[in-house]
Specification:
The complex is a heterodimer of chains A (about 600) and B (about 300). Chain A is an alpha+beta fold and about 600 residues long. In chain A, about 30% of the residues lie in helices and about 30% in strands. Classes of the chains: A alpha+beta (about 600), B alpha/beta (about 300).
């Protein structure tokens, strides 16, 4: 579709990226609403991004409108108004980690080198909070990657096919993305950001198109300028709009209905233009550039020129992004069920060795790699990823990990091509060699090997290190930090912000004998038939048996601040019963009911 | 120039020198280390924990208090102590295989910090002091506690097996429910090959099943002993003439009756089931040493009689 010497840019927009990144690294968070928040100087948490992954059957028709910049209490109130109080109680609140977000984005950018060698991180989507100008704060809720596909789209069957491949492949990895292709960086970025709005515009265009007779010249103009849109089923009016293809040289006509925010203008300028009735790019383009420059300075004409391609707008590619790929194509498709395991292992070993050779020379090792089994056209490839605790160059270990993963994956019916790609690499850790015993494996490396094996089979979130947090609420007083990252982030690269290590601690975490050995996932309501004079249970029923309380210790009042989410107000007691069991129970200060929260096992 | 024979002789000398207590060498006999709990040591066959073996901890027979009876606390106390048993490798991590996802780490975090402190005190060389929290030989920062969350029983068994095969792991704590004899035997062989100790907390009905574990300890909480212990402790601190109510202090300790039940797989004759009393200091993960001697004091006995 692209002509010769025409710049074509693909933008991959990642909406709600802070939340998406958290969900990638902690798949368990998908069960509840998740809010990524930023704490301001006054200690108030404001929402940077939020999401709740739920099935369409559970989804309510009226979705909660929670804009970035809302305070957390406001956001939870809105959530509760749609989904009830329970939704706000189970919500997870995670501090913002912009450095971690960028690192994962860079890893994703390196993965995008399969589409083109020129990949860059796109501009952030900055949104202001609607609290008045005095309290306005900007939050970055979405990120993007921009790929120069000027001469590479044809290798993927054309631009439309490339867009579909990108969106589907990312979706298979659990990443929700929108993609757009246009002539300029700014136009491509705007189209990807506002894919939904283009969908609505196109719907109106089609309605208009259907009303016009075939002989009408406006009909042919509409057909010529229409934006090719993508959907899950390929139908261009499906609601599952994921991608937009702007024809070459048509960004002015195709994207004129987009809002001014998509032009990367400062928020105050957008507000000023909106006040005088200029709401869309089309309206802005009709204004003379000279008057715009006199009124708003050079920023508006510059952005318009960038959008139209009147000025050069170079792409700044990611650094250190050499692509290490080794692949093997079969002359004839090989049946997956017939493939010999010994041969397959030898093939994997050869490809791994090819990938590692350039790294060994630079004293670097593999942190994560991807194995891809391509099948015939029309079938999804089988892709597995292997993440490592620390970079390594041990071929045998890597092959073992790959084969371990393949034990739990059904091979495709026909395999056409096998490729291995290094997703991320890191400097090899220095290890002192033994004088006499030769290069035997040390204890540390043996343990790293073990962790890699565990992660390969059980998943990255299944092998964790517990880390304490200075949070008074028991459920939030520790966090399980995965030992191996998701998209090739090794342990040292993971930011400690989420884990609480870089945040200032105002109080020490509560540990020791006052805390139970086992904590129930959610407190269980306990039947307490009789209470003593001071309101404590004389006995209670648990697992069908009555337990007489012999002694108790408490209360330990745990009350969370209102601005950090759903308020928790509990009086905790430790009860020892006549049967010798120790239980950690609390009395809710609102309903005065008794709950069991943990046991001293 | 040093010739090859001299190098070999040096190598042999270094190897012999490395055969210090607490270091497992191939061909060497079973290495027994203290469990950190003197009462438990008295109960065990080899007066301590034999490295490279399995230990089963049976929960209380009363199912309503099974998860609150303290078996896990004992297993963790022994596991934390085993971290420091190998003087050459320094602290080795303890790994928990928690399929139920209910373990709450803040309860045992102080025990970990304590074990690190013990290591740094033991290490006298400046090199070791620089890596007080890390492995001395490799010099890297290490975590001392890892948790594995298997999704199903097969993954749980596989995880325990893999962990027990790793010599860099001090102990593996798991809560497997139904374990076949074959699986248990595989775990035993895995532990034997590496020197790691498997501490398996199991429901009380498992005592009717055959086992390949070196020891099977039934843990029963003992509230009566707990009361006497508290009383004796108050006598010890306040003197015989004064009595200070220790309200709330009781949560820092817990009394148990440990009973060795069952026997080895190849036992022909019925094994008597000896038992000991043990009071655990929950703040440190150690036993209250000297509590029995304190209770033997005549003034204490008199106080207890008066109280009863």
């Amino acid at each position: 579709m692209s002509g010769k010497n025409t710049l074509r840019i693909m933008t991959i927009s990642l909406p709600r990226w802070p939340v998406q990144r958290q969900l990638l690294q902690q798949p368990g968070f998908r069960e509840s609403p998740i809010f990524v928040c930023r704490q301001n100087a006054r200690g108030v948490l404001s929402v940077v991004s939020w999401a709740w992954v739920m099935s369409p059957t559970k989804r309510k028709r009226s979705q909660p409108v929670i804009q970035p910049g809302f305070s957390l209490s406001e956001a939870l109130a809105v959530l509760a108004s749609v989904y009830g109080q329970r939704a706000s109680r189970v919500a997870r609140v995670i501090p913002e980690d912009s450095i971690g977000d960028v690192r994962v984005l860079e890893a994703l950018g390196r993965w995008c080198h399969r589409f083109s060698p020129l990949v860059a991180i796109g501009p952030e989507v900055i949104r202001g909070a609607d609290h008045g100008k005095a309290r306005r704060q900007s939050v970055c809720s979405a990120r993007s990657l921009q790929v120069d596909i000027s001469d590479t789209a044809r290798f993927f069957g054309g631009e439309s096919s490339l867009l579909r491949t990108v969106v589907w492949t990312l979706a298979a990895r659990g990443i929700h993305a929108r993609a757009a292709i246009a002539d300029t960086l700014a136009a491509s970025w705007a189209a990807a950001l506002c894919a939904d709005r283009i969908a609505a515009t196109s719907r109106h265009s089609l309605d208009e198109l259907q009303k016009l007779p075939r002989s009408n010249p406006r009909r042919s103009a509409l057909l010529k300028n229409r934006v090719v849109r993508g959907s899950r089923h390929g139908h261009w009016l499906d609601r599952q709009q994921r991608w937009v293809l702007v024809p070459p040289g048509r960004q002015r006509q195709s994207l004129q209905s987009l809002p001014l925010q998509s032009l990367q203008l400062p928020v105050d300028i957008v507000d000023s233009l909106t006040e005088v009735g200029v709401n869309s790019i089309g309206q802005l383009l009709r204004l003379p550039k000279v008057s715009l420059q006199e009124r708003f300075g050079s920023i508006v004409p510059l952005q318009v020129s960038r959008f139209l391609g009147d000025v050069s707008d170079p792409l700044t590619p990611l650094h250190g992004s050499e692509l290490l790929v080794a692949n093997h194509s079969f002359e004839m498709p090989v049946l997956g069920r017939d493939i010999d395991s010994t041969y397959f292992r030898a093939l994997i070993e050869r490809l791994v060795r090819q990938c590692l050779q350039p790294l060994v020379n630079t004293n670097r090792g593999v942190s994560s790699l991807q194995v891809r089994l391509d099948t015939n056209e029309g079938h999804r490839p089988t892709v597995i990823e292997v993440g490592l605790y620390k970079p390594t160059v041990q071929v045998r270990h890597l092959v073992d990990l790959i084969m371990l993963r393949f034990e739990r994956v059904r091979l495709p019916r026909e395999i056409v091509d096998v490729s291995i790609e290094v997703m991320s690499a890191g400097t090899l850790p220095y290890r002192q060699q033994n004088l006499f015993r030769g290069p035997t494996e040390s204890g540390a490396s043996r343990f790293e090997t073990l962790l890699n094996r565990l992660v390969s089979r059980l998943g990255s979130g299944a092998v964790v290190e517990p880390r304490l947090l200075a949070d008074i609420q028991p459920e939030a007083s520790w966090v399980a930090a995965p030992v191996v990252g998701v998209i090739g982030l090794s342990k040292s690269h993971r930011s400690g912000h989420l884990l609480g290590s870089s945040r200032p601690h105002f109080s020490k975490p509560v540990v020791g004998p006052s805390r139970p050995t086992f904590l129930l996932s959610s407190p269980r309501l306990i039947d307490v038939p009789s209470l003593s004079a001071d309101g404590l249970p004389v006995h209670f029923r648990w697992k069908g048996q009555f337990h007489v309380v012999m002694r108790s210790r408490g209360p330990e009042r745990i009350e969370t601040a209102w601005w950090r989410g759903p308020t928790v107000r509990r009086d905790y007691y430790i009860f020892e019963t006549d049967r010798g069991g120790r239980f950690w129970m609390f009395r809710g200060l609102r309903k005065r009911s008794w709950f069991l929260h943990g046991t001293y096992g | 120039m040093v010739d090859h024979a001299q190098l070999q002789q040096l190598s042999r000398m270094v190897s012999e020198g490395s055969s210090l207590p607490g270091c497992i060498e191939e061909g060497a006999g079973p290495t027994v280390v203290s469990s950190g709990l003197p009462s438990l040591d008295r109960l065990l066959r080899y007066r301590g924990v034999r490295l490279g073996t399995l230990m089963e901890w049976l929960e209380s027979e009363d199912e309503s208090v099974a998860s609150a009876s303290g078996a896990t606390t004992f297993a963790l106390a022994v596991a934390m102590h085993l971290q420091n048993t190998n003087v050459l490798t320094g602290c080795r991590p303890v790994v928990l295989v928690d399929r139920g996802r209910s373990f709450y780490p803040p309860s045992v975090m102080p025990w970990l910090e304590q074990s690190v402190h013990v290591t740094s005190v033991k290490d006298s060389s400046p090199i070791r002091n620089r890596h007080s929290r890390g492995n001395v030989i490799t010099g890297r920062e290490e975590h001392l506690l890892y948790i594995v969350y298997p999704a199903n029983e097969a993954d749980e068994f596989w995880s325990i097996d893999q962990l027990l095969r790793c010599p860099s792991v001090a102990a593996v704590v798991g809560w497997p429910k139904n374990v076949s004899s074959t699986v248990m035997r595989r775990w035993q062989m895995a532990a034997k090959s590496s020197g790691a100790v498997g501490l398996l907390v199991r429901p009380s009905h498992a005592r009717r099943e055959p086992t390949w574990a070196e020891a099977r300890i039934q843990v029963e909480p003992s509230p009566a002993l707990q009361s006497r212990c508290q009383h004796a402790a108050s006598c010890k601190t306040c003197g015989p003439g004064m009595h200070q109510p220790a309200s709330g202090r009781w949560i820092h300790s817990r009394a148990f009756t440990l009973m060795q039940v069952g026997g080895q797989w190849d036992a022909v004759t019925a094994v008597p089931e000896p038992s000991v009393k043990c009071v655990l200091d929950l703040a440190r993960g150690k036993e209250h040493v000297g509590f029995h001697e304190t209770m033997e004091r005549p003034e204490c006995q008199e106080k207890i009689r008066c109280a009863s």
